[in-house]
Amino acid sequence: MNVNPYLPQRHINDHYDIVGFISSGTYGRVYKAVSKRPANGPTPIVKHPSGRIVEAFAIKKFKPDKEGAELQYTGISQSAIREMALCTELSHPALIHLVEIILESKCIFMVFEYAEHDLLQIIHHHHSLSSRGPIPASMLRSCMYQLLSGLLYLHQNWVVHRDLKPANIMVTSSGAIKIGDLGLARLFYKPLHPLYNGDKVVVTIWYRAPELLLGSRHYTPAIDLWAVGCIFAELLSLRPIFKGEEAKQDSKKAVPFQRNQMGKIGEVLGLPKKNEWPLLQSMPEYPSLNSVVVYNASVNRPVGLEKWFKNTVQGNGYAMPNNPPPGDEALDFLRKLLEYDPLKRMTAEQALKHPYFVDSGGGQGSSGIGGNAGTNVKLPSWNCFEGLETKYPARKVSTEAQEIGGTVTGGITGNKRSAAVIGGLGDETGMRSSVAGSGVKKMREG
């Protein structure tokens, strides 16, 4: 009996209608799409593992390594392989959901659920308001609780993300936080070689942990918790807390000491001390710490995290009765995330149990996934928009170039913003670029 065990090849344009173009970068392009309605019959229904219907999709197209007049195919990028391998295995309410992978015309298409917002977009919205209004405290707690729940799931499954930043944290219209961009993520269970050997530079510079800045050859998931601390501080202040300039690698690909970034951290926290971080002297770049003082005298008179926190809360105008300012628990939460010594830094599991997330009052937070049933605490909601009147603008989507299958032409010179929608399409080691790409002319709400 002649039986073909393989399903016929799926073609991207047979199953999805492209709504518009979102962004492009190092590894490819991202498009917004909806399910294609067949000529005869209803539109196919795609369901999330939770049972809800996925109505829109973000299609991430990994392009061949070289494009031009003649297409040159030189293989699949390491980032694409990692992301495909991990996304097909992992599933959690706080992780972006991978619907399917399609290989067509030597291009890889990863089809994800679509998220209307990301944390960077929300930060920019609040920063651009005429009154420069702060992100509500209840929304902050919900965002951080969901983010840490997803991060705990990754760490429990031996995955370290290595590129957490606001642009990689998606937010759906229903207020669900989704961690995106697993292109730099790695399994850390019994690695064959130190993680440093595979990727000498990880995490966008503003969110890079001090052990990485000091050249540590061995690191742990604690680097993700430092990034979470930086994200929390940015949500509070509406600007990066440690906004340094990255020193680029030289022609010999040597990794330079990030003196400027270390100085930005030192301006707030002071430089690390041996008595507070016992393994500090074992860091390869420890001798370089002295040069930070020479180039940035402010590290000798640090602001201090407590003063930074109080100035931020007062300056951002948490004044309304229904929007009380973050209190001492939030400061303690931030301090334990921005701990220099990675062995003392709070883990994701410890962070979820921090008093910052515990509200007095009976019952569990609405939709309290992962909550402690039976305890007399109210956990943050899994809808970060719950109870808010603010309506955030949807993501901008270009309507110019909509072809996706095969070779895309037509001058798509879109937004190279890091990690728009799924992440990983911008420069992974660089600082994020502006939200609006200069090449996008016709935009509409997504």
List the helices and strands and how they pair.
Blueprint: H1 12-15, E1 16-24, E2 28-35, E3 46-47, E4 53-54, E5 57-62, H2 78-89, E6 98-104, E7 107-113, E8 117-118, H3 119-128, H4 137-156, E9 159-160, E10 169-171, E11 177-179, E12 186-187, H5 195-198, H6 210-213, H7 222-237, H8 259-269, H9 289-295, H10 305-315, H11 328-337, H12 348-352, E13 396-398, E14 443-445
Antiparallel strand pairs: 1-2, 2-5, 3-4, 5-7, 6-7, 8-10, 9-12, 10-11, 13-14
Helix pairs in contact: 4-7, 7-11, 8-9
Q: What would you say about this model in short?
A:
With 446 residues, the protein is α+β, with helices and mostly antiparallel strands. The chain has helices at residues 12-15, 78-89, 119-128, 137-156, 195-198, 210-213, 222-237, 259-269, 289-295, 305-315, 328-337, 348-352; strands at 16-24, 28-35, 46-47, 53-54, 57-62, 98-104, 107-113, 117-118, 159-160, 169-171, 177-179, 186-187, 396-398, 443-445.
Give a verbal description of the structure.
The protein has 446 residues and is an alpha+beta fold. The chain has 2 domains: 12-116 and 398-445, Phosphorylase Kinase, domain 1, CATH 3.30.200; 129-357, Transferase(Phosphotransferase) domain 1 (Transferase(Phosphotransferase), domain 1). The chain is 26% helix and 13% strand. It has helices at 12-15, 78-89, 119-128, 137-156, 195-198, 210-213, 222-237, 259-269, 289-295, 305-315, 328-337, 348-352, and strands at 16-24, 28-35, 46-47, 53-54, 57-62, 98-104, 107-113, 117-118, 159-160, 169-171, 177-179, 186-187, 396-398, 443-445. Strands 1-2-5-7-6 form a 5-stranded antiparallel sheet. A 3-stranded antiparallel sheet has the order 8-10-11. Strands 3-4 form a two-stranded antiparallel sheet. Helix 8 (259-269) packs across helix 9 (289-295). The protein starts with 11 loop residues before the first helix and ends with a strand. Residues 360-374 and 407-445 have low confidence and may be disordered.
